[in-house]
Design goal:
single chain, mainly alpha, 2 helices, rod-shaped
């Protein structure tokens, strides 16, 4: 049973990390919005690229969190990658 709790706790850590990434996404999105009236298109391009990376990190952390939290669940329908089975 300790393995179950350990994986669940690790899942909670991934969930916490995902929330931190989500906060970083919001900061970048706000910065991007402020550039809409600017001619700094290169900076906007860089921000969009960073946002794409952060979105991917967020999805991976959320999927991993769900997978770990439900690893030992008898009724788990979460498969790796977040695809329902």
């Amino acid at each position: 049973m300790t393995d179950n709790n350990s994986l669940y706790e690790l899942g909670l850590e991934y969930e916490s990390a995902a929330e931190k990434v989500k906060e970083r996404i919001e900061l970048k999105r706000n910065k991007l919005r402020s550039l809409r009236n600017s001619i700094c298109s290169n900076e906007a391009y860089v921000l969009k690229s960073e946002l794409n990376t952060l979105y991917k990190e967020y999805r991976e952390a959320k999927n991993t969190a769900e997978y770990l939290k439900n690893y030992y669940s008898e009724n788990s329908t979460v498969a790796w990658g977040g695809i329902l089975t």
